[in-house]
Design brief:
It contains seven helices and seven strands; from the N terminus they run βαβαββαββαβααα. By secondary structure, it is of the alpha/beta class. Strands 1, 2, 3, 4, 5, 6 and 7 form a seven-stranded mixed β-sheet that branches. The longest helix has 17 residues. It is globular, with a radius of gyration of 17 Å.
């Protein structure tokens, strides 16, 4: 069975690979800016669906396509990727000493069957000094990440606690996706067991 991940994100590729699946990746060309006035959970669900369906159009109907999208939400406001170092510092300062939500939408489609779900995880930052904020931003890590941090990198030094799915904060809710794939006849644990024997 062919599986395609509708993303070039190295973090999503790594997470899907750890699920024991063989897959290829393709980058969906959709205008994410055109879909921006939705509430966070609806936004990530819609974007993950659009990404998956865009790639599925050029695939065989039997191919399983997986799409995902992640946003960081603070006080109801979506924090996207910072456009500048100054904006990255503002975002990290706003997150300092507070809790925020990370919403990740994931869609699995095969032919006419399309299933979209959302995982919401609460992340709490420790209180940071202005110097710590500056040093973190200087690592360069925040510049291509929603909310200006990467929990799987140096950003782990900022995170005091997490309630929910860690992998979802990284960019792909592995536990939820595994359950979704069962509905498409893909049992990741069964596949992993075969490889181990």
């Amino acid at each position: 069975m062919k599986i395609v991940l509708a993303s070039q994100s190295p973090r999503r590729r790594e997470l899907l690979g750890k699920m024991g699946l063989e897959f290829t990746t393709k980058s969906p060309e959709i205008d994410e800016e055109a879909i921006h006035d939705l509430p966070a959970q609806e936004l990530v669900k819609t974007l993950s669906r659009e990404k998956a369906l865009h790639i599925a159009q050029g695939e065989d109907p039997d191919t399983i396509v997986i799409g995902s999208d992640t946003v960081v939400v603070l006080d109801g406001e979506i924090l996207g990727k910072p456009a500048s170092v100054g904006q990255a510092e503002e975002m990290i300062t706003a997150l300092s000493g507070r809790s925020h939500e990370v919403c990740t939408g994931v869609t699995v489609c095969q032919g006419e069957k399309v299933v979209s779900q959302v995982e919401v995880t609460q992340v709490t930052f420790r209180s940071l000094t202005p110097e710590e904020v500056r040093r973190y931003v200087q690592t360069g890590e925040p510049m291509d990440k929603a909310g200006a941090y990467g929990i799987q990198g140096y950003g782990a030094l900022l995170v005091e606690g997490i309630q929910g799915d860690y992998s979802s904060v990284v960019g792909l809710p592995v536990c939820r996706l595994g359950r979704m794939l069962l509905d498409f006849g893909v049992d990741c644990l069964a596949l992993a067991g075969k490889d181990a024997l």
